[in-house]
Amino acid sequence: MFDEKMLLDLQSTLGSRGILISFSGRFSQGIIEELGEAIMEHMKAEDRPRNDIYNVFAIFVEITHNIKKYALSQLGSDFYDQIYNSGIVTIGRNEEGYFICSGNLVKKTDAEKLANALDSVIPLDKDQLKKRYKEQMKKELPPGSTGAGLGLIDIARKSSKPMHYSMRDMQDLAFFTLTVMV
Amino acid sequence: MEKLLIESTKATPLIDFDSDKSMLVLKGQSYPENAFKFYDPVFNWIDSYLATNPQEIHVEVRLSYVNTSSSKCIMMLLESFEKAFQRGVNLQLNWYCDMENESEVECAEEFKEDMTFPFEIIPEAAKNH
A72 and chain B: CB distance < 8 Å anywhere? Predict the structure, then answer.
């Protein structure tokens, strides 16, 4: 029910977790730009180091573009709308620094691919990540590619701690979450 | 040859390529929805321009943020410049950076590592921070 109690509860949940910005629903390029700018302005007002602002913004852009591209790739599937509407991203701050948490529904077969890709990136140290990034950068892309396959490596490079992910079965799909610290 | 002028938006940089002055400028942020689509006319223009056998080329880059798919496109542009340089074109690239931003500098340095043409990273006082 939409009542003031619900709004207050929601606000108090966001506040108690240190969440500064949250969005749940379909990510459009316009929303990504506006939210990205909002978090940048917020961090500037808090006098955060430029590097942190840049990294939070960059991770936010890569994550939301990934969610959006994945949703668009499901066009024509029975789960298209369900997947497209399932995106959620929160950006906040706790005692360890800034965090970017995202969640979205994915097909189970894709969940496995995603887990494999993450498992191959998460254990790498900064030098190994740079090497992996450069190798991927030099690969010829198949025609019609919408991404360069660099997003997860870039997120790992910009995070201050190893990324954490989870998958939860939701009937035919899986809810994938990713947490990144800066 | 026609100039290539694409005005900047929040997520796409200004592209100001002037063949008469042999001056190519990229300025702004780059994180469009589809980087390959955005840079496609840029690649096409560069191919036609390089086919005119220019003697010299000046490139000025001021990109405060480049997402990964745009980075791939920038790398493809730099590779075209590298080939032109190998053929004897007098090429100079100046990449202006906010030196207080490690990630921005690192991004420029990594592009530079793979190129042999004159590639200078120049400190710029940040205006947008």
Answer: no
